[in-house]
Amino acid sequence: MRLRLYLMLEDLAYRFQISKSCVSTIFQTWIDVMFIRLKHLVTWPSKKAVRTHMPQIFTDLYPKCRCIIDCSEIFMERPVSFQARAQTYSHYKKHNTVKVLIAITPFGTISFISRCWGGRVSDKYLTQRSGFLPLLEPGDTVMADR
């Protein structure tokens, strides 16, 4: 409910007549459970699998494309800690955010998700330290926006 409707902890606490800390604990527990249950769905495919399932337009225009990457920012509540506020404040979004690097294959499946970083981190820094680059093989090309 919180993820789908982007509800604040206070709102959920009021709706369910429980404390904000209880809502936070329940939410974090479910995030951990979803991670454990769903992480096997995100796998790095072989170069052969990517080429076999590549759409014709990619085969014609970008035959060596292994994946498309983007750093995505997700809004978060303003942290209480000043240090956390500084690390998560995104000047681009003018809000506190977490940032993740996501890669998809040319045929649209998610092939990589980095751990979350504070929204202040640059896309270049995140990409270099996310564990994504060692997955690439010689000759691979990656599409990315600026």
Question: Can you walk through the features of this model?
Answer:
The chain is α+β, with helices and mostly antiparallel strands. It is 40% helix and 23% strand. The chain contains seven helices and six strands, in the order αααααβαββββαβ. The protein has helices spanning 2-5, 9-16, 20-38, 47-53, 56-61, 82-88, 123-129, and strands at 65-75, 89-90, 95-104, 110-113, 117-118, 141-144. Strands 1, 2, 3, 4, 5 and 6 form a six-stranded mixed β-sheet that branches. The mean pLDDT is 91.
List the helices and strands and how they pair.
Blueprint: H1 2-5, H2 9-16, H3 20-38, H4 47-53, H5 56-61, E1 65-75, H6 82-88, E2 89-90, E3 95-104, E4 110-113, E5 117-118, H7 123-129, E6 141-144
Parallel strand pairs: 1-6
Antiparallel strand pairs: 1-3, 2-3, 3-4, 3-5
Detail the poorly predicted runs: none
Number of alpha- plus pi-helical segments: 7
Q: What is the C-alpha radius of gyration, as a whole number of Å?
A: 18 Å
- What about the largest sheet? 6 strands, mixed
Mean pLDDT: 91
The share of residues in extended strands comes to 15-25%
Helix content: 25-40%
Q: Secondary-structure element order, as H and E?
A: HHHHHEHEEEEHE
Would you report the number of β strands? 6
* SS content category: alpha+beta
**How many angstroms separate the termini?**
33 Å
From the spread of the alpha carbons, the general shape counts as elongated
